[in-house]
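Write out this protein's structure.
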Amino acid sequence: MVHLNTIKTRPWLTAASLTAIVALSGLTGMALTSHTATAQINAQSAMPSGFADLVEAVSPAVVSIKVDGEQEVRRFGNGPNFQFDFPDLPEDHPFREFFDQFGQQFGDPRGEQGPRTRQFQASGSGFVISADGYVVTNNHVVANADTVTVTFDNGEEMPATLIGSDERTDLALLKIDGASDLPYVEFSETEVRVGDWVVAVGNPFGLGGTVTAGIVSARGRDINPSSYGDFIQVDAAINRGNSGGPAFNVEGEVVGVNTAIFSPNGGNVGIAFAIPANTVQQVITDLMDDGMVTRGFLGVNLQGVNQSLAESLGLSEAMGALVTVPTPGSPAEQAGIQSGDVIIAVNGEPIEDPVDLSRTISRIDPGTEVDITVWRDNQEMDFTIALATLDVAALEERQEATPPAVPAEPVPTDVGLALTPNPNGDGVLVEEVEPESIAAAANFRPGDVILEANKTELSSQDDFEAAAASVQQSGRANILLKVERDGAVRFVGLPLS
């Protein structure tokens, strides 16, 4: 258990009373009742007069990070559209795929064979979390580092050693060599709310200690498929060099680690993302124990449940994580979890969506038995499953899918799909989608393969029509389809009229 103490600021803000706020707005004659939004606002949440005391208190624990190292030279193309960018991200970092996924790697212009390497220097931000010198930053700030130097607000420099890092959450833990009695900060135990003030302190563009302020714009942002999708969005100005720096609440507690920006040109446009404090604490605790993060593994490919799917599945509301395919040999498959099951609870706690399930499972130690509740055939079923260990490298392996051949003579259906038997395997092939049809509105494309309809395997157009008729006779308006596209399986709730 990691105990993180702090330099804590004292409450210094005296907010105007609600009466004064109303008077200044020229609404003194307006009667405020308990039913008005204004009457529900706590006067203590009024705009602070300044952040100088907060900044003075926390700045000694915020550091600039300088990295020297060697890396392979890789180049990526960039499109003209708005992109996400990770400030200071090394070009060979896997997160680059998120915002450069359509880029192209260029060969060595000198015609040499094999990868080239180059020496590099990078800078970022971090913050001290213990008197003996543990420092939190982003993994991408210190990736490929040979040496790491931290610089304090007073200009003092100290060498640091990488204790461990976690690419999946983009977090890293450093230790300042021989440190003792350092100033440090603590994490907030209270989750921020949309509209809360945040103050970012960091090292943008290598300028050293710089302070910006804003509010929490949104919670639960899912900006990267390799992460756990729970980023805090803030509008405080974050630029290159702010990566790994802290975002503070008005009490001087760390509520997040500034990690990513959304930008057309690499500069600040008022949309930035921070890893929330609770996630940081969990990861840093693991790194402090043994230098690595170990996560539980259930072994399911998932998709969300929208209202159409919920109706097709017989769920009363759109919730849970729909299993498209259980991973072969995984704990889920061995326990009997099937394609089409909806995981609705873990250890009795409801599951909202696939991201919620991923976060929940990742926080449980491998080998732990968990109770999984699924929705199958209009009833709940319970499974007890011992989690395995997540192998990130194996998880991220991509299998090439062979595109299905296009047969002739499509057979039209009432929903706008022209279907033929799939010559390359199971199911029926979508050869044509009629414009402005129900199927077109559901984003069906030629080349899709419909494997099942209403949980019945398909091999012909007649099978599809029979399944649709059965659904209509039961009084339901949507049919549940299991669809394969480019090797990936998903479920679709398709309206029949």
